[in-house]
Amino acid sequence: MLILIIGLDVVGENPKRFAVVSWYNGKLERKGEFTLYRLIRFIQAKRPDIVAIDSVTELGDDLRKFLRALPPGTKLVQVTGRPGEQRSLQSLAREHGIRTTDRFDPYEEAKLSALLASKGVGYEVLAFEDEVIVKVTRGRSHGKGGWSQDRYRKRVHNLIRDKVREIEDRLRRAGVPFDLETEEKDYGLARGEFRIYASREELAGIVRPMRGGDVEVRIYPVERAELGFAPLKGEEAVRERRSVIVGIDPGITVGIAVIDLNGNVLALHSERNMPVGEVFRFISEIGHPVIVATDVSPAPGFVEKIARSFKANLFVPRESLRVEEKNELLRSLGVKVDDDHQRDALAAAYKAYLRLKPKLEHVEAKLREAGLSKRAEEVKALVIQGYNLGEAMQKVARRERPREEEEPESGESVDVRPYVRKIRELEERIAFLERENEELRGIIREQRRTIERLERRIADYDEEVRRKVLRERELEAKVKRIELLEKQLREAKAVIERLSRDLVKVKRMNVVEIRGSAVPLKVLRVLSWRELERIEREVGLRRGDVLFVVNPAGAGKAIAEELVERGIRALITEKPLPGPVREVLREAHLPFFTSEELDVKRVDEFAVVERETLERAIEELLERWAEEDREKEAEKFLRLVEEYRIERIKELKRKAEEELEAEKRKR
Fold first, then answer.
1. Which DSSP string do the residues of 289-346 spell out, in sequence order?
2. Does 527 share its domain with 569?
3. Residues 466-480: pLDDT tens digits?
């Protein structure tokens, strides 16, 4: 596979400059000196597979900045080895048969780094966890107050909700585990934050960043607290590790509990903002999990990622554990925890252990009978992983046998008779299976001879019979083809007939429109914000337009106020308008009709109405509304006059009573 490798070495400081050499398909090319800024731009343009350097310490304080700027798929490789185990470039070159010249020439050092990396020498510098944060938020400020700002804010929150649902659907279809936190607002979402348990490269093509619009999608890789170093070639140390059951409580604070296959607690830990990589390393230091457990159903994506990384079985309770049940489990264990996260993790692990306990006890009893108690933990782990007890014991016995043969004689005598007896039983079983296998092979050989004899008989059949069969098959295929073509012809004729009727209607509508006797209508399927945006995007929406809505059900006051604000001349609907919309349009004197009232002619996405009919209907409706408004004003005026008359009478009565009272006092 063709790859591009860039080799680097420092030339000087203040400003820092690098000698750059490229390696592509065995060809070396000297690129010149680059400052750090120009080097980053060069790497982003070329997008190499590997950037090789003898020591990352040469990047100094700019190391993290350099790693963040690398394009996806580009590795930074330290060819001299991991920290504390580094070797010189010259010794590595001699070991791999690479000729060296001037060790003080920066371009020679850069060349050696590129050549060694091309041979798979070195360690990749790991700066990021296999974990990504994706935040979906609004792209710009909503502004200050007012109806327009409120409508805009609600629209943006709906757009954020739609984008979050779209990303969630893509991740589920791609099978990528994740956790999601959202903040609801205005029947939509103010923000959404995904914690996705995959690398940046795995997300390529699934989630893309978005900036500059109403909604922003930003992707933040999770950085490691300390840099890691992974070999370019698959080096792995084979060592035995104890099998454990791990319980995990994900969230902002991660809780971890580790117990062995006898139910003993080995570790409890909780930490805030603990990434997947740190969790993986913490567990690996204790043992190898055969079961990863959670206390909630369904399992969070964080827990699925850990189980998948260890190739462990995932334990999920039938229903989420209640707090009382968790406390009861901890009381039976007699273990104290520091916080709720450790409690939840330990309860999950112990619940998984209790589910397996009868099977594990049965395994242990059988092992005692067979004299394999010393390897009980390994057999239990194999049984949990899906082996039956016999297969697991056989695998362990095979591993034990060479150890016993290699074991030197010592002063202490070990009773190996149970092992020898078990091995003999297994050898007899193997011999029986081999005999049975040989018998089955004989049966297969006989059946093959029978098949060959029957095939020769079939080959001897008369040629005319074969031609007849072929002719019948060909005729049957032609009949089926004819039936298929006839069906397609009927469907095509039906489509042509429908299109012909529509064409006649369109021609009539065009003639009417050209003569000026008709008004074209802009057709909306439903009365919604999204449909308004589609019409404005496709054909435009201007003041004085007449809209035709197929189904206005579900519309509210906000969309009606938007139509008024845009200066729509009239609204025609196929079905009656909802009450709130009618009130807003009536208050704003914006005419609205049904298609039956105006005899609208419609074909698919096109509709027209006779201009004279429309103008007359609008004029009559506005006159009727004006008359109703005048009547309401008159009633209001008469009501005010009546109220004034009543108040005046009350005032005159009060004054008369006061005068009478005064005359009485004078007398």
1. EEEEE-SSSSPPHHHHHHHHHHTPEEE--SSPPPHHHHHHHHHHHT---SSHHHHHHH
2. yes
3. 778 788 888 888 999
Pair 202, 100 in one domain: no
Assigned domain for 66 exists? yes
Label each residue of 330-368 as H, E or C: HHHHCCCCCCHHHHHHHHHHHHHHHHHHHHHHHHHHHHH
Mean pLDDT check: name the lowest of 98-102, 230-234, 365-369, 453-457: 230-234
Continuous segment of H or E residues that includes residue 128 = strand 123-138
Q: Tell me the pLDDT tens digit for each residue of 214-246.
A: 899 998 888 877 787 877 753 332 234 678 999
Which residue would you say has higher pLDDT here, 144 or 174? 174
Shortest CA distance to 5 belongs to which of 66, 44, 35, 46? 46
pLDDT above 50: residue 375: yes
H-helix or E-strand spanning residue 642: helix 611-666
- Please say which residue of 101, 121, 141 terminates a domain: 121
pLDDT, the chain, mean: 82
- The predicted pLDDT at position 239 comes to 32
Residue that terminates a domain, selected from 98, 121, 144:
121
Alpha carbon distance 56, 8 (integer Å): 10
Two tokens, residue 195: 């914690």
Contact at 8 Å (CB) between 599 and 613? yes
Say if 27 falls within a structural domain: yes
What strand order describes the sheet that includes 313-315? 265-272, 253-260, 243-249, 288-293, 313-315
135 and 219 co-located in one domain: yes
Q: Return the DSSP state at 139.
A: S
Q: What's the Cα-to-Cα distance from 577 to each of 553, 573, 600, rounded to whole Å?
A: 7, 7, 17
pTM: 0.39
CATH number reported for the structural domain that contains residue 248 in this entry: 3.30.420.10
Cβ atoms of 344 and 303 closer than 8 Å: no
Same domain, 91 and 178: no
Domains: count for the chain: 4
- 254 plus 354 within the same structural domain: yes
Contact present, 244 and 267 (Cβ < 8 Å) = no
Structural domain for 113, as ranges: 4-121
Please indicate, yes or no, if residue 460 is contained in any of the structural domains. Answer: no
CA distance 599 to 613: 9
Give the residue from 22, 13, 103, 4 showing the smallest Cα distance to 59. Answer: 13
In-domain check, residue 186: yes
Residues 198 and 88 in one domain: no
Residues 6+ apart with CB under 8 A from 550: 523, 524, 525, 526, 573, 574, 575
Using CA atoms, how far apart are residues 535 and 523, in angstroms rounded to an integer? 8
Q: Are residues 107 and 214 in the same domain?
A: no
Does residue 169 sit in the same domain as residue 263? no
Q: What is the CATH number of the domain that holds 78?
A: 3.30.420
Position 176: which residue type?
V
**Across the strands, what pairs with 554?**
none
Of 353, 363, 371, residue with least CA distance to 261: 353
Residues 523-546 have pLDDT tens digits of 888 888 888 888 888 777 888 888
